[in-house]
Structures are given as C-alpha cells and as structure tokens.
Amino acid sequence: MKRTSTESQLKDSKDVTLISNYPFMSQLRQDMGDDLLCISSQLHYLEVVTANGKQLILYALKDAILEVPHDKGMQVHRSHWVAFEAIASFKRTGREGIITLTNGLKLLVSRSYIKTLSTRLEAMQLVTQ
Fold first, then answer.
1. For residue 64, which of 24, 79, 86, 95 is within the disulfide window of CB 3.0 to 4.6 Å?
2. What is the pTM assigned to this prediction?
3. What is d(CA 76, CA 92) in angstroms, rounded to the nearest whole number?
C-alpha cells in the first residue's frame, strides 16, 4: 500500500521530533533536545532551558507547568519552574533561597516555595543544603 504525502510527513515528523510529550516543547528548535532544566517567565514569553541551550517561545508559564508531571519538578518562584534532576545545589539566604542548576544557572526561590522545595529535595535525597 502506497503512503500518501500526509502520512509520509506525519511518519517523518514522528521520527525526527523526539522533543517530548510536553506540548510547549514542540515549539522549540530540534537542536534544543528534550532534557528540560527549567522554564522562566519573561513577560508574555517563556524562556525554556534545556541541556543544549535556551530559547524564548510565546507561551504562558502557568500553562507549561500544567503540562509537566508534578514528579519532574516544581515551581519555585512566580517566574520559575525547575526540574528536580537539574538542581545541583540549594542554599537558603535569609527568607529566600537560591538554586544552582547543573548548567551553572542560578534561580531565586521565593519564601512561599522554600519549605515545600526543601521537603521535596530531602525526601528525594537530591541536594543537601
């Protein structure tokens, strides 16, 4: 049976697009990969950081957070979501905190998320404070 051009395009795009099951990541360049480290809100844009770099896309942070499973990471600030596996260190600084990611990027943790983050990291034995 001969494939139509539409079927061929769908098959080819499935073979090439190994980005992720997260719809917002389908907007990324293919060279960005699917190793999600963090996402940050930049006004109406979303800065998506993967192990291969970063890219701005037109997307809402709240919508992207809903697409990622809760066991993969968490929101740590009104402007930041971070993947647990991307956290290299977490340090409290007064009532707030700072996360350093495996790529060296530093993100603020707001006081409203600090206790939950500390508890999750301790339970997962990922990072010591």
1. 24
2. 0.81
3. 13
Measured distance CA(96)–CA(53) in Å, rounded: 27
Tell me the β-bridge partners of 42: 45
Cα(8)–Cα(28) distance, integer angstroms? 22
CB atoms < 10 A from the CB of 6, how many? 8
Q: Residue count of the chain, please give it.
A: 129
In the predicted structure, residue 87 carries a pLDDT above the cut 50: yes
DSSP strands (E only) in the chain:
36-42, 45-50, 53-58, 73-77, 80-83, 87-93, 96-101, 106-109
Q: How many CB atoms lie within 10 A of CB 36?
A: 26
Residue 53, sorted as left (phi over 0), alpha (psi -120 to 50) or beta, turns out to be left
C-alpha dihedral sign at 82, 83, 84, 87: negative
Predicted local confidence at residue 128, as pLDDT: 55
* Rounded-to-integer distance, Cα 103 and Cα 17, Å: 24
Largest CA distance in the chain: 67
What's the one-letter identity of residue 58? L
- In the numeric block, the tokens 């060296």 are attached to 104
